[in-house]
Write a structure and sequence with these properties.
heterodimer; A: about 280 residues; mainly alpha; MetI-like fold; about 70% helix; B: mainly alpha; 2 domains; about 0% strand
């Protein structure tokens, strides 16, 4: 008779195989085929979809995605580090402060993105306030540009940077800081030579955890970039809807997946599996 | 000097995190359509209430979230228990991978799969495909939360039950499952919110009869300034807030 544990694993297995790994396999197959006249996927088999990834037309979008995701990641870490440091040192209020960081996360991503459209658009709150105060005479073009997308991404994924940095800073051996002070280090010297090197694992984890979703972002560039600031995710969506070029969309998706997996693999290899 | 700067910095980060949403809520009570305060009014809530299409989309979202939460919680909890007993690197690896896969890729891969499967079955995209997609991505969240709870569990308890003559099923049902309840509740709550909020995957696998609330919000946001969106957002905050507080209460009792 089948053991209970095996029986219990079956449904999860079925869903994973049929609706996660199976679909990925279909994408692999599609990426090696040719776009049909009416948008379907037909033979012959080809590698052309992959060589097209190197086309400068798409290269610009890939490069932009990297720059935007990189800038957002740096933004998140710079904002999150002092916050994580403060929370790690705040004793009994730690849980409250951490929950306050996570709170916006329970709201839909769509609503959080819309909140920034509301603030940044031409008739939005910031422009209305600046106009009313007489600081500007015409609305500033705050929305629908790369900066708006970066602000949206930083806002969306800041908690992903705070949590790993916090757990790293929390475990930091306090006696090392005291030792540095006893040996005559000024606070900023302790920060630079003791705290920062010791939080490198937290920084790496925060970096990868923020960079991955930013690189694959779809909604933020779509709504806050307004089509002017396309990233890989938007290009993929475009291939599957308007352009109806599924083979190329599949190749793009797999390239993105490969980067995600490579980043995760590098992180896990370096900092061990205890993070999972 | 740093001692005074750091709290100031921390306060401004919290403001950055919370003010955009608070302002959005505040302006949903504005009588003007524009972002200049003209007086308190419930006009946008009335507009929201009288919108039939909105009510239908909300109903669809609630139905999808409820069904997929139940399915994902059962499948995920059983899976977590199975993994706890018998580690499968392949399954847990796939689960973690599905958590970090960009939503847009999950969406197009599912779309491609459904379209492929429809060649053999006489079916179309609709509620059922949305639910299948939601169950699939929610299972990983449930697994993650329940596994975390199981890691703190003592395997000796079940062994004792088995030694005393319990069957494997009884050991699970009477020993481990009761202990897992808070974890399962937290997992279900998470599954419900990720399902209720999802736009990217849903929009790709939805059919004509399955427009959800996020899909409608997206279309409204795209069209331009609309205080009704602010009103709906406020209702979602309050609704989710009540749900979270209620589940905390339930977990404590």
């Amino acid at each position: 008779m089948m053991r209970l544990r095996t029986l219990f694993l079956l449904p999860a297995w079925a869903f994973t195989l049929l609706l996660f790994l199976g679909p990925m396999l279909i994408i692999v197959v599609y990426s090696l085929q040719t776009k049909g006249v009416y948008g379907g996927v037909v033979e012959p088999w080809t590698l052309e979809n992959y060589t097209r990834l190197l086309d400068p037309l798409y290269g610009v979008i890939l490069l932009r995605s990297f720059v935007m995701a990189g800038a957002s990641t740096i933004g998140c870490i710079v904002l999150a580090f002092p916050l994580a440091l403060y929370i790690a040192r705040s004793g009994t209020r730690k849980t409250l402060l951490l929950n306050l960081v996570m709170l916006p996360f329970w709201t839909s991503f769509l609503v959080r993105t819309y909140a920034w459209m509301f603030l940044l658009r031409d008739t939005g709150l910031l422009n209305s306030a600046l106009l009313a105060l007489g600081i500007i005479s015409e609305p500033l073009p705050l929305l629908y540009n790369d900066w708006a997308v970066i602000v949206g991404l930083v806002y969306g994924y800041l908690p992903f940077a705070v949590l790993p940095l916090y757990s790293n800073l929390e475990r930091l051996d306090k006696s090392l800081l005291e030792a540095a002070a006893d040996l005559g280090a000024k606070p900023w010297e302790t920060m630079l030579h003791v705290v920062l090197p010791l939080t490198a694992p937290g920084m790496r984890a925060a970096g990868v955890l923020v960079f991955i979703p930013c690189l694959g972002a779809y909604l933020t560039p779509d709504l806050l970039g307004g089509g002017k600031s396309m990233m890989i995710g938007n290009l993929v969506q475009n291939q599957f809807t308007t352009a109806r070029d599924w083979p190329f969309g599949s190749a793009l998706s797999l390239a993105l997946m490969a980067i995600v997996m490579l980043l995760l693999w590098a992180l896990l290899r370096r900092d061990g599996e205890e993070m999972l | 000097m740093k001692q005074r700067l750091l709290p100031l910095y921390v306060i401004s980060i919290y403001a950055f995190l919370h003010l955009p949403l608070l302002i959005l809520c505040a302006f949903s009570f504005n009588s003007s359509r524009f972002t200049i305060w003209e007086g308190f009014s419930l006009v946008w809530y009335k507009a929201m209430w009288n919108d039939g299409a909105l009510a239908e989309a909300t109903w669809n979202s609630l139905l999808i979230a409820a069904v997929s939460t139940v399915l994902a919680t059962v499948v995920g909890t059983l899976g977590a228990y199975g993994l706890w007993k018998k580690n499968s690197k392949f399954l847990s690896g796939s689960m973690y991978l599905s958590l970090v896969t960009p939503e847009i890729i999950t969406g197009i891969a599912l779309l491609a799969t459904f379209q492929w499967a429809f060649r053999f079955f006489h079916l179309q995209l609709g509620m059922h495909t949305v639910i299948l997609a939601h169950v699939t991505f929610s299972i990983a969240y449930v697994l993650l939360v329940v596994m975390a709870r199981l890691r703190t569990a003592d395997p000796a308890l079940e062994e004792a039950a088995l030694d005393l003559g319990a069957t494997e099923w009884q050991a699970f049902r009477l020993v481990t499952l009761p202990m897992l309840k808070p974890g399962i509740a937290a997992a279900a709550l998470l599954a419900f919110t990720v399902s209720f909020d999802d736009y990217v995957i849903t929009s790709l696998v939805a059919g004509v009869d399955s427009e959800t609330l996020p899909m409608m919000l997206y279309a409204m946001a795209r069209r331009g300034a609309n205080p009704v969106v602010s009103a709906i957002s406020t209702v979602i905050f309050v609704g989710l807030g009540i749900l979270i507080v209620a589940s905390e209460r339930l977990q404590k009792t």
